[in-house]
């Protein structure tokens, strides 16, 4: 499930399609996202521009002809004036290194490569990871499995999504307000479509704080709870702790077993990706799953996984959790992982991996890199951490505008390249913004590459 509401998780530039394309619930699910993308391809006759079963193996820039020479599968070479990568932030899936994984006799699956029509019904299931995807998986399968053991690496501040059916009245309101909706999306921090709060936590009384938190808990959506309640939740430690305490109290109210509740309650800052857990098909939330006698929680900070064995997972206290299925909801080698796996060489044969070796993944505007002329990245390093379809649209408009201008004024072989000074200035801006937020205090998460061994944060 997307954690963005359906009406802003789509393209904004086809008004007729916005008015007519159906969405049945407040949040789109994977099959609906795929169907929508296939619909857009058919509607705009895009498939003729696509090559399938064609992997880019390497790309090399040459100053002599101002061209990219791209090798693809089958030892074929493509020559291009401009190279635009749409590799995505989250597509190189991450499996943690756990001894004995190859000895497990049951089924092992990563949520990013889920086999179609695979059923967990009646099975003993283990889930490693409880981030955005993990909490959704746990919420959905708890009532179907024989047992569900959640191997929790880090407890989460998760709020309800507020997902529900789209009523005719709600859809009519959306259709009457598309222009205002996307104006708000483009002129906001999160691009989620809701009105972001302009009120400080410190300007509200204790009673008002509770009322605002409760109202937004009931409305649902993780980003709304972080950015729609008070305008300093992500920047002020006291305001942040107020939100944390509210969610911890909710966990105590919802989870009946005190020991399960203790393990589920986080105590660090609320400064990771703000989660919403989605409602199960029967309306239950993530935390409600742990009221089921067949759903168990293992705190890996207290009893780490020692090894995977043929029959299941053994933790440091000697307990063997016998399993038929082991699900990895362990995320991705995010941001640069997709780029460093491909041999991209810019000016003087310098690889993108080497260019980032000292400074870490960086860019100008999340789009360009010095030393890599005429190469543009959609969703590149230091791009916006926000609702992605509008962010990608903005980047695409910027990239195509640059190319159009270069073609007009740049002669036969135009070169577009960010300067090192521009990249350093932009990186400094990003680092200053991060340093003035609480996200910087939660560096042990995937945003900063903490889920990848050896990654510098």
TrEMBL record:
Superkingdom of origin: Eukaryota
UniProt cross-references to InterPro entries, sorted A to Z: FAD-binding_Monooxygenases (IPR050775), FAD/NAD-bd_sf (IPR036188), Flavin_mOase-like (IPR020946)
Pfam families assigned: FMO-like
Gene3D superfamilies in the cross-refs: FAD/NAD(P)-binding domain
Stored SUPFAM superfamilies: FAD/NAD(P)-binding domain
MF terms (GO), sorted A to Z: flavin adenine dinucleotide binding; N,N-dimethylaniline monooxygenase activity; NADP binding
Keywords: FAD, Flavoprotein, NADP, Oxidoreductase
PANTHER family (alphabetical): DUAL-FUNCTIONAL MONOOXYGENASE_METHYLTRANSFERASE PSOF (PTHR43098:SF5), L-ORNITHINE N(5)-MONOOXYGENASE-RELATED (PTHR43098)
Annotated protein name in UniProt: FAD/NAD(P)-binding domain-containing protein
């Amino acid at each position: 499930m997307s954690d963005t509401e359906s009406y802003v998780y789509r393209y904004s530039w086809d008004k007729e399609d916005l008015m007519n394309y159906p969405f049945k619930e407040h949040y789109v699910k994977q099959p609906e996202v795929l169907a929508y993308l296939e619909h857009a391809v058919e509607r705009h006759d895009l498939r003729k521009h696509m090559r399938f079963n064609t992997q880019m193996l390497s790309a090399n820039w040459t100053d002599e002809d101002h061209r990219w020479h791209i090798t693809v599968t089958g030892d074929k070479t493509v020559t291009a004036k401009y190279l635009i990568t749409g590799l995505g932030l989250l597509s190189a899936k991450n499996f943690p290194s756990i001894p004995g994984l190859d000895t497990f006799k049951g089924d092992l699956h990563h949520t990013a490569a889920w086999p179609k029509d695979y059923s967990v019904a009646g099975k003993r299931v283990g889930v490693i990871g409880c981030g955005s995807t993990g909490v959704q998986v746990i919420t959905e399968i708890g009532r179907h499995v024989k047992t569900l053991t959640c191997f929790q690496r880090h407890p989460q501040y998760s709020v309800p999504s507020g997902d529900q059916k789209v009523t005719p009245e709600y859809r009519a309101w959306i259709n009457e307000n598309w222009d205002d909706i996307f104006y708000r999306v483009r002129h906001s921090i999160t691009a989620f479509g809701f009105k972001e709060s302009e009120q400080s936590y410190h300007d509200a009384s204790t009673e008002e704080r509770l009322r605002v938190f409760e109202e937004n808990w009931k409305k649902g959506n993780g980003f709304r709870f972080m950015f729609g309640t008070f305008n300093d939740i992500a920047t002020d430690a006291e305001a942040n702790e107020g939100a944390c305490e509210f969610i911890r109290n909710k966990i105590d109210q919802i989870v009946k077993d005190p020991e399960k509740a203790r393990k589920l309650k986080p105590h660090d800052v609320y400064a990771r990706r703000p989660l919403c857990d989605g409602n199960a098909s029967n309306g239950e939330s993530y935390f409600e799953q742990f009221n089921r006698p067949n759903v168990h929680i293992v705190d890996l900070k207290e009893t780490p996984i020692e090894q995977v064995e043929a029959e299941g997972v053994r933790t440091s206290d000697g307990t063997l959790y016998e399993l038929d299925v082991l699900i990895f909801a362990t995320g991705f080698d995010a941001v640069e992982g997709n780029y460093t796996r491909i041999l991209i060489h810019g000016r003087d044969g310098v690889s993108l991996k080497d260019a980032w070796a000292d400074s870490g993944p960086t860019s100008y505007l999340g789009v360009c890199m010095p030393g890599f002329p005429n190469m543009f990245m959609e969703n590149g390093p230091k791009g916006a951490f926000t609702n992605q379809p509008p962010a990608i649209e903005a980047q695409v408009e910027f990239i195509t505008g640059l190319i159009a201008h270069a073609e007009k004024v740049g002669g036969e072989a135009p070169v577009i390249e960010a300067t090192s000074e521009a990249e350093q200035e932009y990186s400094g801006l990003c680092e200053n913004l991060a340093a003035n937020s609480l996200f910087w205090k939660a560096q042990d998460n995937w945003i900063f590459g903490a889920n990848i061994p050896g990654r510098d944060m």
